[in-house]
What does this fold into?
Amino acid sequence: MYIIGDPMIPTRKPIVEKLPNWEDIIYHPSCMLIVGARGRGKSTLGFKLLDIFHEKYKVGAYCTSLPKEYQKYLPDYIEVVDTIDESTDNSVVFADEASIRFHSYAWNSTDTKVMDRIVSLSRKKKLSIIFATHTARKFAVPLLLDMDALVFKKPSMLHARLERAEIRNLSSEASEFFRNISNKDQVKYSYVFFESYIGPIMNDMPEYWCDDLSEAYIDVDKEYDESTSDSPIDKYGDIIERIIDWENRNPKSYARELDPEADTYFEWHEIGINYRILHELVKCGVLKIIYKSNRTTYYRLNNRNKIEERISADGW
It folds into this structure.
């Protein structure tokens, strides 16, 4: 039998005789998405799964976009490629920080369309793909729908509450499990939704793992930010979601006196967003100015309900 964390804290699920091993539940080819808060071991798990697929199925192993200065830490059997389509048939690929390239707000981008085709053909190509990102809300919906498995590392409080409506109940179930785990032990576990198994599972680190590898994709994120599209929607997706959340929680009855269609408004300091960014969002039609003077400017989302629907359905 196993006891998770403090034995005096009751767990949500009944104690079972033994947790399964990853080798017992994964299958090839398949596609899975790892989500969870920052620093909770998503990258560690992704590389460990590369090892398991490589060993169990004797397939080639790849990871994407790892900066050259970090590649020296990897074993010889893991090859670094720029994109998933550079991998060979009958192989496994790990794409860390997947929302950088396949963000929900860029659902119509060339990268996402190409990846959608690759995922759709992955079974014929005998290709297993492991994606990792902070939250499924940032991950392109066409790809999310084709995942064979969803793996949660410890979600943040807001991730559990503001996750995509389609999987919010799964995120809540995972969060409930992690609530019963001591902080120091949380990184040791994942909560998985596979066809053959739903529940907790323990993680081991790859033998070659080090702190440098865990921080490698910070530089990738920075590079992409510098080269990304000039579209404010692509650049400021998280900010738009923050504004939606703020407006939903802060109605102002007197807003209609300024704009008949408004139920609230905000000033830049209430959201904590630089006015230059707000101005870009006004220019692209996401925000509307309903009042302006020499001292202040009042903003509101332009058709908030439609924006929320598009985020939930397609990520724009």
